[in-house]
Write a structure and sequence with these properties.
- The chain has 364 residues and is of the alpha/beta class.
- The chain has 2 domains: 174 residues, Rossmann fold (3-Layer(aba) Sandwich), CATH 3.40.50.2000; 171 residues, Rossmann fold (3-Layer(aba) Sandwich), CATH 3.40.50.
- 36% of the residues lie in helices and 15% in strands.
- The protein has a 7-stranded parallel β-sheet, sandwiched between helices.
- Helix 2 packs across helix 3, helix 6 crosses helix 11 and helix 9 crosses helix 12.
- The radius of gyration is 21 Å and the shape is globular.
Length: 364
């Protein structure tokens, strides 16, 4: 990986930020798969490059400063056009609303382009912002658009009114073998099942919902809690766990580079989010053979095995806590095995790589 001036003819990937997240992790897996013969440039508009650790060291990937004009669309579009003209890209791939100025800039100059949408931030978890809907409708009507969930595909058709021929549904895929039999990490002290999650600690992930649900079990079914990940919510979440009496049985593990080892430690994986589409963390948990407790957001219900869907709750506290209590009284091993079988059939990464190669105009 290099940090220098980029020669022409590369794939240029524009992310609102290149911290560890689903879209960024997917890019790293794809770049590792394509190998050193394919050149890429990555622009992180907030200059966070944490996910670069997932890239193989021998790849031809260049990280460039963005010079982003945050909050000012017209200057940002002009800057994007100047930058892209200098880069002379093979294709421009933009990610989510945060890179929309670059999608517009690429469209105005008629560059080969692809826009990916992986979901919405907390400001759009209840309803989409009309100005953004209109912008997507106008800016993306002649752009190829990749969507990893059927929910997003329906939104792109019905609300953004994008031409169906421009929409490409490619479900996320993972390296199934990596999560099948990893050595576990140490669990918190105490007794009871280990309930864990792996997430960026941001408001829309609503890890507080999980903490409250685990605390509610103390009198009937004590459990241990592991929260893997980092972010702005971490201090408040640690304080909440302490206030609810979980400080001795809860572990906040911070950022991790080996999620498979934490998943091997969990007895149950939890996804308490207010908004998701097709979360990679859930696919990884399924591949690890874990039963899951999830909120009914995005494609989550359709991703899971039928054995696990009774434990999918609305995104509210009481239903989530009740579903967790119900899961703990059932045959969790059977649910976990069914999830692993479903992940094996539907969510291996080879199919994802083949579809992405086609979308990027690369030979299969």
């Amino acid at each position: 990986m290099r940090d220098t001036v980029a020669p022409a003819g590369r794939f240029v990937w524009v992310f609102p930020g290149f911290g560890v997240g689903g879209a960024q992790t997917r890019f790293c897996a794809l770049a590792n798969h394509l190998g050193a013969d394919i050149g890429h440039c990555v622009l992180s508009l907030n200059n966070d490059l944490a996910c670069a650790e997932k890239l193989a060291p021998d790849l031809d990937v260049i990280m460039l400063p963005s010079g982003h004009h945050a909050g000012h669309m017209v200057p940002a579009i002009l800057h994007a056009r100047r930058t892209l003209r200098a880069l002379q890209p093979r294709m421009v791939i933009t990610s989510n609303w945060g890179a929309m100025e670059w999608a517009i800039g690429a469209a105005l100059d008629g560059l080969p382009r692809l826009h990916t949408e992986d979901g919405f931030g907390p400001e759009e978890r209840q309803r989409q912002i009309p100005r953004r809907v209109l912008t997507r409708r106008l800016a993306l009507r002649r752009t190829e658009v990749m969507l990893p969930s059927r929910t997003l595909e329906r939104i792109a058709r019905a609300q953004w009114r994008l031409p169906p021929a421009r929409l490409h549904y490619i479900p996320n895929g993972i390296d199934l073998a990596r999560f099948a039999a990893a050595p576990p990490m140490p669990a918190p002290p105490g007794e009871g099942p280990v309930i864990g999650t792996i997430a960026a600690l941001r408001p829309e992930k609503n890890i507080a919902r999980l903490i409250r649900a685990v605390a509610a079990l103390r009198d009937t079914r004590p459990a241990r809690l592991i929260v893997v990940g980092d972010g702005p919510e971490r201090p408040a979440l640690m304080a909440l766990a302490s206030q609810l009496g979980l400080s001795g049985s809860a572990l906040f593990a911070g950022h991790c580079t080996e999620p498979e080892r934490w998943l091997a430690t969990f007895d149950i994986f939890a996804l308490p989010s207010d908004t998701e589409q097709m979360p990679l963390s859930l696919l990884e948990a399924m591949a690890a053979g874990l039963p899951t407790i999830c909120t009914d957001v995005g494609d989550v219900r359709d991703m899971l095995s039928p054995e696990n869907t009774p434990f999918v709750s609305p995104p509210e506290d009481a239903g989530f806590a009740a579903a967790l209590a119900a899961l703990l009284t059932g045959d969790t091993a059977q649910v976990g095995a069914a999830n692993r079988a479903r992940a094996t059939v539907l969510f291996g990464q080879d199919a994802m790589f083949t579809a992405w190669r086609r979308l990027l105009g690369l030979p299969a």
